[in-house]
Amino acid sequence: MISSRSPRVPVRVSVPNQPRLDWSEVTLRCRDEIPAAVTEVMRSMEGQPFSATDGFAVQLATTEALNSAFSKFVRSSGNRLQLRFVVSPERVWIEIDAPENCQASSSETTLSTQLPQRDRRVSLVEAYMTYVEYRNEGRQVILSRGRGQGAAVSGPPAGYDFQI
Hints:
Layout (H helix, E strand, L loop, with lengths): L23 E5 L5 H12 L6 H21 L8 E7 L3 E7 L13 H4 L5 H9 L2 E5 L4 E7 L18
Antiparallel strand pairs: 1-2, 2-3, 3-5, 4-5
Helix pairs in contact: 1-2, 2-4
């Protein structure tokens, strides 16, 4: 599901039919911090009943969404991205927030208004996750992958090493 909503929508998504889960948070200052942040998401999936396909999908989509947010919003050294995530046995929820004071570059608009152009990163995120929603004029993206769901069900590429 892809939609745009007003900035008044709460920052945290509620996880349906789940007990209160603790969200983890990582602040990213530059692209070099993306691999470590994605590793934190993957570690949170350890011990849960996710397949290698699910792990690959979450890893790829999170990496691409963070790179896209850095490309569109984080232009100066003072700006940061917030990555929040929570994992239940059935689903992974991920939120990526760009600062409110960031303006998209003049050649690029927000994630939600760029959708008709279907840039590669946005297309990959939407293909590998089961739920994608854009909020706050595209400054926040909410991603979710249900265990064993999504378009990427044929498995990760040969040699992909994802162990849970």
